Each structure stands twice: as structure tokens, then as C-alpha cells.
Amino acid sequence: MSEPEPRRRRRRLWIAPAVIVLVAAGLWTGNSSVLWGTGEGRPELLAHRGIAQTFPLDGVQNDTCTATRIHPPEHGYVENTLASMRAAFDAGADMLEFDVQLTADGQLAVFHDPTLECRTDGTGRVADHTLAELRELDLGYGYTADNGATWPLRGKAVGLLPTAPEVVAAFPDRELLVDLKDDDPADGTALAAYLATLPAERLKTISVYGGDHSVQAVRDRLPQIRTTSKAIMKDCLIDYLATGWTGHVPDDCHHTELHLPQRYGRYLWGWPHLFADRMRDADTRVILVGGEGDWSEGFDQPEDLDAVPPGWSGWLWTNRVDVIAPLTDR
């Protein structure tokens, strides 16, 4: 005797939801950070520009001079100087990030802003000055925490602007991340030409990020170097969202870096620990950045660490490694 139609209809009604539940359970099980992720250890710390002066982020725009709105200084370091970098490593940094752009005479100067007026006693574009001219500047000239009533860093960083080769030489065997500030293929080509003179073992400790065009110039010359840009990260994450549920890590996600605002990680298969493990197996770093990832926001104060997944063993971006390192089980 055949099954009555109402009964068959009822069976079909519960089969579809049951299948959905089973599929969802399978996806959760296969991508569960709780079940499969490491979730142990301590984070590794990326010191952004060494130990830097921090500033409130409210109202910051692309053209905001952040040097004129710093917090009252708790240290005397000026970003992107060898002194601030050395202090960062001494404080416990695992990797150092620094900014690079070309000078008028083709040197790889370490400086953040495209122009000089905000931070220094100079004027004009960095690209329009020679390295010798930039060396004469006071890099701490423009910093104030009280609307110009005092200038606590003036006179303390005269002549301290380094070059990329000087940074590399100063910290042999340490992990370095070079930020190409000008998205011009010429900058990438110049950096790649210098990096190509280094031994293969040294290149393993150096990564490059920045604009799509400048970074691509480095990739074309030195594909063995770990590089990343917005385009590279976008390609990786889109592909991973589509296929990561299987555990597969797309080719676009291999041998690179992902600078991720912590709040966006929740959308990634296996977040946080299984995702970090998968990327680590693909020779890719996962670096958590603060807030939305804009304006150099990092994990700079003890309360910022509340947003870090417990047991996180990936990387953290920080402007104050001296504050954060003692809090991360070092």
C-alpha cells in the first residue's frame, strides 16, 4: 500500500530543514576554532614605526596633521628613527614596520608623510628633496599635545632620518616590514633593486606592503619576498570566503600577510584560531589591527587587549610595544 499523500507532504516538510541543520552542523564542526584551532600561546607583536607618539582618532581625516594632536608624551621617541626602532625591539617587538619613499636623488628615505610641514621644520614634498637636505631636518619639530603651547620633541630628532639600507643593517636577522608610502611603481622598483642585493636568507626576514602598483613592482622582481596590498588581501579573502569552508586555502592566500581589523574576523571560516593555523601553514601572517584599520590604530593600551581573542597566537599591530609586550606573557 502506498503512503498517503498528506504523510508524504509532511515528511518532505521536515526533511529540508533537517538537511539544512545537518549541513550547518557539518560546516560548524569542520571549521570550529574550538575543536580544531590551536588557541594557545601568546601573540607576536608588530611595532608600527618603532615606538611612536599616539593621538586621538576622533575627527582624523586624510589631511589631518596628527603630530599637532598627540597625547601628552610618555616617552621621547620620534617614529621611524633608529632610536625608536631599537627601543621597540628592546621592549619585546617581534617585527618592526617602517615607512619608505624615494627622495629626489633616488634614496630610500624612512619617513611617513608625503610632505614635511606637519612633523618637521622643512617644507615641500619629500620627493623633491635630496637625502642630504632631509638629514638636516628636525623630525620632532611639529609635535604638540597642547595646541602649540609647548613643543616637547623639538630639537630631539635633528638629523635622525634614516634610509632603508641603514634600518636593515641596524637590525640584522630581525623581522622587518617595509611600507611603501607612495603607490608609484618607481618606488617599488627602487626598493626591489636594493633588496635584490641582500642574501637569500636575509630576504626571508623582510616583507613589503603598500599600494597595489608599488608592491606589484616588488613582486615582479622578487616573487620570493612576502608582499601584500589591498588588492592582494582582497583577492585572498574573497577566495577564502568562497572555498574556506572546505579547509582549502586559496593560492592567493599563500606567502603573504593579512592586516585584519578584529571585528571582521568573525566572518572568516575557522576564526580565530583555526583560521590563523591555516594561514600559518600557508606561510601567511595574520596581523590584527585596531578599530577599522584606519589611521594607524593599534593595540596600544591595556584595555585594547580586551578585543583580542583569548589565546590568540597570531600577530598584533601596536604603536606602543613598550606598553603591550609586558601584558602578553613575555
From TrEMBL:
<keyword id="KW-0472">Membrane</keyword>
<dbReference type="Pfam" id="PF03009">
    <property type="entry name" value="GDPD"/>
</dbReference>
<keyword id="KW-0812">Transmembrane</keyword>
<feature type="domain" description="GP-PDE">
    <location>
        <begin position="43"/>
        <end position="328"/>
    </location>
</feature>
<keyword id="KW-1133">Transmembrane helix</keyword>
<feature type="transmembrane region" description="Helical">
    <location>
        <begin position="12"/>
        <end position="30"/>
    </location>
</feature>
<protein>
    <submittedName>
        <fullName>Glycerophosphodiester phosphodiesterase family protein</fullName>
    </submittedName>
</protein>
<dbReference type="InterPro" id="IPR017946">
    <property type="entry name" value="PLC-like_Pdiesterase_TIM-brl"/>
</dbReference>
<dbReference type="InterPro" id="IPR030395">
    <property type="entry name" value="GP_PDE_dom"/>
</dbReference>
